[in-house]
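Mods, move this if it's the wrong board.
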Amino acid sequence: MKIEDGKLVAETDEEATTLKAMVDESVKGLKTKNSELLGEIAKYKPLKGIDPERYKTLEEQAAKAEEDRAVKAGEWDSVKKQLLDAHAKDKTSWEEEKATLRKSLEDNVLIATATQAIAAEKGSLKLLMPHVRTLTKLDESGRPVVVDEDGQVRVGSDGKPLAIAQLVAEMKEDVEGYGGAFASSGATGSGSTGSTGTANTDKYAGLSPADRITQAREDGLTT
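Not the wrong board. Structure tokens:
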């Protein structure tokens, strides 16, 4: 090979072949590199015309917005927990209030019913009410029923829940257990007390259920 006018010139066919191979290899490398550069340029094509400083500012704002969103999400979780805690507290308070109201209702209904039943049998409220009260409750429908020592509803011979009046009648028949709590069969007149002094009961006879409850509380028979 020789150099003419600053160019490498082959002097034989073999040198020409070798020179061509070198040129082809060089051109191939340039084409590959050019393709890679064009690919990189294509990535930035969507950003054509965008100010780099403006782009940087937008990126920073996006990052700040994401940070604020995360903070707000955390704040919402905290607020949600507070709301759930408040709801649970209100629910507990409501359940307690409901239980208190039901207990008050139960006491009023059972005391009124028991007072009437005891008065009808000429019994002593002071002696009988504590026993009757522990053996009675309201069923799911709010009706007074008699229960046994295990809290199970007692059923009468008619297949229906035993009424408080039936319980008091049973107690009256149990002379050995409760005989002293009822007036003797010979007692007469509203002021008669027989052997037990049931004048305390007679004063309830003409009262309304609400007044009976009030009077029973005044007499210390219930709370």
